[in-house]
Structures are given as structure tokens and as C-alpha cells.
Amino acid sequence: MAGSEVSPAKVILLAVQLSAKANIAGLETLISQNKKTLHTEIVLRILLSHLPESLESAKYVPLLQRLISDELLEDTEFSVATFELDQLTDTEAKRKARKLHLLPLTSPYDSEDEPSDPFIRFLVLRALRIDENTGLITQLPELLHPFLHLSSYLRTWTISTILPLLRLNYEYHPETPILLTLPKFEDLNNKIGVDLLLSQTGKRESSQGITIARDLRGLVGPWTYGDTRWKRRKPMVDSKTASQTVIPLDEARPSYEKYRPWEEVFKWMVDQANISWRTAVDAIEYWDGPGDVDLGEYGDGSIWLDEDEQQYLERRYARAALASAYSISAESEESLIGIYNILSRVIALMDRDRIPEWQSSLHLLSPVTDIDHTILSRKNAAHLRNALLNEENPLTCPKENAIRFLHALVISALLCTKSGLITTVREVGELALLQEAREQRFLFTRLMLHVGNGPKGDDKYWVRKRNEILWLRSWGAEEISEEGTDTPTGKGIFGKLSKDYIEAEILKLLLGNTRYDLAQSIYETSPEKPLSRPIVVDTVLSAAMNAYDNATNANKTRGGIKKCQDIMQAFPDTLNDSLKVSQLESLVTVTHLIGQYRLVFKQGEPFKPVTLRVHGDPISILGKVLEQNPKSYTKINNFVDMGRAMAKAGLTVRDIGGESTLDSQKVLPEQLLIAEKRVVSMCIDAALAEDDFETAYSYVVTRLKIVAGPSHSRTPEISRKFSGLVAEVPPKQLDDWSWRAALQAGKYRRTAQTVKPSHLGNSTSNLEIRHLEQRMECLSQALRLAPKATLQEILNVYRRCEEELETQVRQEAEQEEAWDEQGDQAIPGGFGTVGKHNNTASPMSRAAEEAPMSLFDLSRASMARAQSGFSALASLRGNPNEHQRTASGSSTGGNNTPREGTSDATRVRKRDQLKNAAVGGLASGVGWLIGAQPAPVNAASEDDDDDDDHW
Fold it and tell me: What is the arithmetic mean of pLDDT over 804-821?
């Protein structure tokens, strides 16, 4: 059956049948034979409606090419007769043809954007049906690419819609495909579209800058290409539901709409800087901005942005790069280097003078100048965190001022980070803009701690760090003076801190790290001295004191104490004739002396030098040393030296803040005397605690007599001036230790553990009597030194001691008398008259003792009675001639008593001398208190009284 013999309806039905069976050759022949019936539009509608979407594009694209070029080919083997069309009448064929409902070639977009060529509309609709029914968008490039040259609309639509989705799912990130149809992809708004296209960008650890730039260049670039992206779809008839939702139109101007996708890209960059700074840095380093777009083989070389638009987007890209730099919050040296690279990239994009590499910038430390007040304003601190992409933000404006400021911040942050203090550009920016001294001081202190951990022996390191720290204060520029003040300030991150303060802290750092020669060369011997002499003195002393406080060993030949000495010796010319230096030297001396003894505080805490300096009563530490070191009290000279050294160090006179208020002219002599008294008293107490009464007694009668005096405890001259009419502060008691120590010695009683005397000398061999005599002598010292309110207590002790002494003397006399009687009876030819004479004398003595006596008479009577027994004992132990003289004298009775007293006076024993001294002291010192009359004393006693008479 020839083509002319087939009705048009049957031809259409046959074309539909061939199209449904994908018989491309038969369809092409049928079209060629029936061009009048199967004109181009009806063929395109049949193909759109019935050609299987799963059919590979390569099998029917040649047909489309020949169809539009009108160069159809005929297949000689094709015959219409092979198809059963005779069974249908023309009427039935027409009826079936009307029911085909072929899809129209109507564009799914606005009429303004609809291409006039039906073939272009067919290609777009065919691509949409393939994606909707099969999702095989990989077939679309082969379908569309041969016809891109026919329509700019088709090219733009292919580039902005198909190319990004195709690359995202099948080329760039096939491991995580996005299941999204073309219509839904077109309906994405700007933010969601950018987030979707860049959802996998920089996620993998192996991602490099080139792959991040590839996504921006090959996904976002094509997606924003042309005008099609910003045309909204109109209602579209679905092949199945015949319905389509209506999307509202955007009211923004089309010219501005071109920038909106790029604004979302810029926001994405800023967000990535805070989330994954490497992604943002790599994107800026390897991507040149909105003009850097990869259209692949789909581009025609034309530029769709005019020059003004391109310049605007480049400025926005530069602002986004600066905003990303401020948004990087990672604290690491690598992130700061990344910010420096961003800055270099912005300078290159803006075609400005290049800056050196960051290593060179850290070495050069070039002055930062020409930054006006529009940048260095306190209100700009808010712009470091907010509205970074805002056109009104001066910090992210790609101009010279903002670039210099960011460069100074990056160098500042790098200097801090390389010194060990990890910080961010935002933190140092706030310091520079807010200029708050408290925050700057806090960061400066932290920086100095990290700098101090550097190499100890490298002077080059310390010189470099000093230069860096000074640069951080002023950024190498000239200092400016604030309004109303004469104090110059710097522009840098430590601008509020004075230069003297920073130099002083650097000096402390050098001294703390034993760089004494370097510190001396800079701050003492240098022609241009950075600090004045008073500041250097205070700083050196502060560093020395810090070394002292941190010392753990009291030995001055090693550790912190040695460092303290070395620091003071490093500035001999500056520290000459300084009272504080001499005080510190005394402190080191006494610390070293204490370190030679064992000293542990509560809970096993060992002694540390700082304990001595901060102790409320440092001299009391010597008492702990005496307690914890047996027999140490015997080294009283060493302890006295330690006490005096404490006074010289100013530890005994301090204000509320703990600072020494010692005045060498007025206070020091008095403090030295007080320290010596306290130490001697402590040694006496320590000796008594260890039952060494002999040593304690020797300290009382030798040391206290020299260092103590009544005026220090009683202050009678001051007390007499009080009138009693007004309330007055009572006079301060200067010595409350000496009399107490003497009293404690006087109260001590011998026990089995008491250390026995090594030699007796001229004293009696009776240890009890000797001990009581020594106690009385100690009590006499206590009476001489004690304040008035305590005299009665001491007298009571003295009276009891005196009674014990008389009892011991009486017992000794009785024992001697009994021994004499036993000796006379045992010796042939003994002198009985001697015993009779003594017997008659004893009642007389007892009668005299029974008479009323004063305390002093009682003491003398006891001494006389003791002497009466000693003469007989001496006659037995002496030579015969002396015994004969004694006996003849005794036989004469009471008539020879004066001569006998004269003879005895020339042989007064040591015990009697001590007793006379004690009695004389009582008579002259406290007799007025108890109402006793002073007793006459011999010449020797008067001499002793002259030495003791101070009140």
C-alpha cells in the first residue's frame, strides 16, 4: 500500500505505533513519505508523547537532526503493508486519532521566557519527561548538546539546570547522590540550592583546595549562569495528573536577582570559616570568584555578566574573603597562616602591592601606619562578630585601611601563637579596638608566662622576643598621647599598657631566666636606658624576691636562693646603697642559717623560704627550730645572729600589706635589741625543756643581764607622765620575754632527768642547795626585769625558794653536827668542850631565830646558822694548827664573837655571795613594795648593786 493510499488518520496512528515501538527507521521513512500529514510539530508531539523515555538518546537524535534539516532518509525495506491498517475504516481511524491526546509543545515556563521554536520546546519537554519517568539524566547531554547552538535559551537552561545536577550526582560526588528531579531542583531557592550543591564540598579528609574550587567553579558557577535561573515556572500540566502548583513571583528586581545566588555563596564561605576553616581558606586560595566558572563543553565563550556587574561581584567576593578571615575561630598556627594567605589572596585580587610571606613579616615587623580613626574606633569591635558582609562594615571593606589593619592583627596573633599563647584574629582585634587595660594586662601576663618557657641560653631568642613584645604594643608606629593625659599609648594590642611596665616585665623575665649579662647590657650599661634607675631597682628587687619566694631549698648555694643572690649581684651599680637590697641580703643570710637545721611545720610540711617572709611572727620560727633540734640551744650565738638578721631584713616591722617599714636610723637598733632578747629567752626555755638547767642558768645570769633592762618592761618614765584626766593608750611593753624566761628558770625544780653540772667550782657540793641558790639568782633577775604587775607572783616564788633553801641548809648543818659528834667520839683524846660549847650555842641561835624577823633577817640568820656548822667541819678537815685556833676561840665563849665574825667575813663562800646579791637586790629593788628595810652590804655587794641599779 503506497503512502498516498493511506488516510492521514491512519498515518498518524501508524506513526504513533512506530514511535511507541521505537522503530526509528520506519518512523523516519513514514515521515519522509507523508510530510504533509506528518509535519514537524505533529512528529515532535508524537515523539514527546509516545517515544519511550528509556530509549537511548543516540538512537533518535540523528532522526531529530535530519528532521530539522529536512534531510530525512527512507528505508527501502519498510512497507506500510506490513502493518494491519485495513481492518480500520477511515472513520474509526479518525476517531482513534482524536483520542490520542498528544502532549502539546508548550513551555513550562513564563510566556516571556518561552522559546518560539517548537523544536527547542520539544527538547526541553523531552528532557523533563526522561528525568521524571526514568531519572536517566545521563542521557540528556547526548540529547541536548547537538542542538545547543540553535538556541541560547536551550544552552542556558542546560548549563544552569542539567549540568550542575549531572556533575553533582555522577562526576563530583557519586558516592552520595541527590535524588532530586529537574523541576524540584529548579524550584530550589538560593540558599537551599547553594547548600545542596555544596553539601559534600570539603567533607572528605582527602579534599584539597583544587576539589573545593572545582565544586564552586563547576557546580555553583553553572547553576548561577544566565537568566533562566531567576525565571519562575508557570503552572505546568502534568502528563498524569494534569495539574501543577503555582509558584509565587519574587518581587526583587532582576538586575539584583543576579547577585542573590552569589550572596548565598559568600555566606556559605563565611559559615565554613567558622565550621571548617580549611575549606574556606582553600576555596579563597584556589577560586577566583564569580567570574571563575567552569561550563565545560556547554559554554560558547560569551560573558553573561557585564563589566559593572563583574566588578561589583569581585568586590563582594573580596569582602567575603575578609569576613571569612575574621570568622575563623580555630586556635592554631595553621589557621592563622590560612588567614594570612586569605589576605594575600585579597590583595592579589584587588591588584594592590603584594605583602611578603608571613615568615618574612614576622622577622621584619614593619611599622603599621596610615590606619585612620574610621578603623581604630571602639564601636568597630562589634563589627568583628556581626554583619561581616554588610556594606557598612569598615573592617571587611576591601580597601587599604582595612587590609593594613587585618595584616597587623594577623602578625600580632602569629607572634603570640608562636610564643605559645594561642589566640585568634578576633581576640587580638578586640584588644586593639576596645583598648581595655585590664584585658590587655591579662593577655600580656599569659604571653610572658609562655615566653619565659623558651631556651634559657639563647640571647638571640630573648632579644627577638623583646622586640616582638614592644612591637605588639605600638605596632612599630609612633606613640600617641590621649586627650587630657601625658601618658603615651600605642595602637597595638598592648597599647594601653605603659612602656615602662612592659620593659619592667621584660627585665623580670630576663632575670628569671638567668640572662643577667643581657639584662645588664640593656638596662644598666646601655647608653639609652629604657628604664629609669628607681624602676630598675624596684624591678630587680621584685625579680629577686620572686626567685626567693619560689625557692624550695634554704641553701644559698643552689636553687632559688642562689638565683636571688645572682639577681642582686647582676646590677652592682644600680643597686648600690639601697636599704631594700641590704634587707634582702639579710633575708638570704637568715634563710641559709635556718636551712642548716631540721624544721618541719604542721602536717609534715617542710620549711620553705617563703614561709619565713610571709610569717606573721618570723622570730617564732626560731622557737620551732629549737624544739625540733635537740641541744641546738647551745649554739645561742647562731640563733642570736639569725634573730638580728631577721630584724635587719625588716621582717619584724611591717605594715598591713606585709611590706617592711624598717627605718635604719630609728627603728633598727630597737628591733635588733628586741630580737636578741627574744632569742635568748627562747634558748633559755629550750634548755629548760630539755632539763638543762645549768645552761639556762648561765644564759640568765650572763645574757639577760646584758641585753635586758627594767626600762624595757616597765617604762616608768612614760607611766609617770599620765595624768589620768584623759584616756590615753597605755605604753607599749618592749620586753615581755626576758623576765618570763628568768622566772621559768627560777621555777625549775631538779628531777632525775636534770643534766648534772660538769663542775662545781667554789660552790657547795650539795646539789640541792646549789640549785636553790641558782634559782634564787634567776628570780632576782626576774624581779629586776619584770613589770610591776607581776612582782608579787615572782616574790611568792622567791619566798618559797628561800624557805626551801633554809630547810636544806638546816638539814646540812644538822648532818654536819651529827658527823662532828660522831667524829669526836671516835677519836681518842677528843675535845669534849668543843661539843659542849656548840651545844650551848645552838639554843642561843635557836632563841635568836625564834624572835620576830624580817625576810632579810631570816635569810641572814639562815646563813649564820649554816656557817656555825661549817667551822667545826673545817676544823676536822683542816690542819691541826688551824683546828687548835678554832677550838681555843670557841672555848672563850661569846666574848670572841666579833673577832670570829671578822675572821668569817674574810672567808665568805660563793653561796653566801649569791645570797647577799639576791638580798641586796630585793632591798634596793622591791623593798619598797613589801615594806622591808635595806640591809647593809659589804663593798663587793655594793659594786654589784651599782651594776644592777637602773631604776
Answer: 85
Who contacts 466 (Cβ-Cβ below 8 Å, separation ≥6)?
A: 506, 522
- Long-range CB contacts (< 8 A, 24+ apart) of 603-610? 607/554, 608/551, 608/552, 608/554, 609/548, 609/549, 609/551, 609/554, 609/560, 609/561, 610/548, 610/549, 610/550, 610/551
Residue 487: predicted pLDDT: 61
| Mean pLDDT, all residues of the chain | 80
Query: In this structure, which long-range contacts are made by residues 753-757, counting pairs with CB atoms below 8 Å and at least 24 apart in sequence?
Result: 753/691, 754/691, 754/692, 754/693, 755/690, 755/691, 755/692, 755/693, 755/694, 755/695, 757/694
> 690 phi and psi, to 5 degrees?
-100, 20
Q: What's the sign of the alpha-carbon dihedral 889, 894, 896, 900?
A: positive
Which of 232-241, 421-430, 929-938 has the weakest average pLDDT? 232-241
Measured CA to CA in angstroms, residue 733 lies from 275, 678, 785 at distances of 73, 13, 12
DSSP string covering 915-938: HHHHHHHIIIIIHHHHTPPPPP--
What is residue 227's predicted lDDT score, i.e. its pLDDT? 53
E-assigned strands of 535-581? Answer: none
Q: Which neighbouring-strand residues pair with 600?
A: 606
* Residue indicated by cell numbers 528525568: 131
Q: Tell me which residue of 666, 655, 627, 626 sits closest to 642, measured CA to CA.
A: 626
Grid coordinates representing 92 are 474509526
Q: Over pLDDT 70: what percentage of the chain?
A: 75
pLDDT confidence band for 937 (50 / 70 / 90) = very low
Q: What is the pLDDT of residues 371-382, one digit of tens each?
A: 888 899 999 999
Between CA 265 and CA 216 the distance in angstroms is 9
Give the CA distances from residue 525 to residues 296, 458, 521, 599, 720, in Å, rounded to whole numbers and listed in that order: 71, 20, 5, 42, 59
User: Taking CA 740 as the corner, what is the angle to CA 736 and CA 746, rounded to the nearest 5 degrees?
Assistant: 160
- Mean pLDDT of the 698-718 span: 64
Pairing of β 488-489 and β 480-481: antiparallel
The whole-model pTM stands at: 0.71
Mean pLDDT score, 116-129: 93
DSSP 150: G
Residue listed under C-alpha cell 547553594: 194
Cell numbers of 898, please?
666579833
Query: Mind listing the pLDDT tens digit for each residue in 897-916?
Result: 333 333 344 344 444 554 55
The answer to whether 285 and 345 are in contact (CB under 8 A) is yes
DSSP 682-746: HHHHHHHHTT-HHHHHHHIIIIIHHH--THHHH-HHHHHT--SSS--PPPPPS-SSHHHHHHHHH
Model pLDDT for residues 388-397, shown as the tens digit of each residue? 999 999 999 9
Is 80 exceeded by the pLDDT of residue 717? no
Strand partners, 489: 480
Asked if 834 and 888 count as a contact pair (C-beta separation under 8 A), the reply is: no
Q: Please state whether 931 falls in left (phi above 0), alpha (psi between -120 and 50) or beta.
A: left
Q: What is the 8-class DSSP label of residue 84?
A: -
Give yes or no for a contact between 314 and 349, defined as CB atoms under 8 angstroms apart. yes
Mean pLDDT of all residues in 462-484: 82
Residue 383 in grid coordinates? 563589627
CA 557/CA 535 separation, integer angstroms? 28
818 Cβ contact partners less than 8 Å away, ≥ 6 residues apart: none
